[in-house]
Design goal:
heterodimer, A: mainly beta, seven-stranded mixed sheet, globular, B: mainly beta, six-stranded mixed sheet, five-stranded antiparallel sheet, 56% strand
Chain lengths: 112, 109
């Protein structure tokens, strides 16, 4: 069966520090991968999606970047965090273009 | 620009009655629509979906309706149960996967 792992679960980082959140999927190949952010009291905002290795599409210009170095690995990064980067970050995958997406458990990021 | 909108941030329903959650989208190229249920500090879990070639899909107590001409979909839960209390997100997809802003449903025993 397929599983998605996202870590860490919680993270407190100072303003100006770098960020690296990792997401891996097991039990499937060539998944579509997604990064979302849920700010306090807000909906799920699509940040990046990838349909293949090295292929990244950005939805919102901001302080973050994403990379897909391997087929089932998706990384969300920042060189210098801002207070506004605080939120709940979710990674998701889906196999088919028309199908449901499955989510990781999320990372609660607090920038202080 | 919000491509998927849920205009009701909250909804309260008595146990046993019908819950109706609504969702509007702007992009006519979306061809697959989904509903998710979410608890705080957890990832969303998939509930039900519908392809753009259909106008209704039913799964137990959950039914999703799609009106393509109005770019509107809705989720009906009947009968509503206290365990249904959560935040519900609609989603619309092509290659991207966009979510609405969510509706917090409270089912009152």
């Amino acid at each position: 069966s397929q599983t998605i792992h996202q870590w860490p679960a919680t993270l407190v980082q100072p303003v100006g520090s770098p960020l690296s959140l990792e997401c891996t999927v097991e039990g499937t190949s060539n998944p579509n991968l997604y990064w979302y952010r849920q700010a306090a009291g807000r909906g799920l905002q699509l940040l990046f999606y990838s349909v293949g290795i090295g292929q990244i599409s950005s939805e919102v210009p901001q302080n973050l970047s994403a990379s897909r170095p391997q087929d089932r690995q998706f990384i969300l990064s920042s060189k210098k965090l801002l207070l506004s980067d605080s939120g709940f970050y979710l990674c998701a995958w889906r196999k088919r273009r028309l199908g449901e997406a499955f989510f990781g458990q999320g990372t609660r990021l607090t920038v202080v | 620009d919000q491509q998927v909108k849920q205009n009701s941030p909250s909804l309260s329903v008595q146990e046993g009655r019908i819950s109706i959650l609504n969702c509007d989208y702007t992009n006519s190229m979306f061809d697959y629509f989904l509903w998710y249920k979410k608890y705080p500090a957890e990832g969303p879990t998939f509930l039900i979906s519908i392809s753009s070639i259909k106008d209704k899909n039913e799964d137990g107590r959950f039914t999703v309706f799609l009106n393509k001409s109005a770019k509107h979909l809705s989720l009906h839960i009947v009968p509503s149960q206290p365990g249904d209390s959560a935040v519900y997100f609609c989603a619309a997809t092509g290659n991207q996967f966009y979510f609405g802003t969510g509706t917090s449903l409270t089912v009152i025993p």
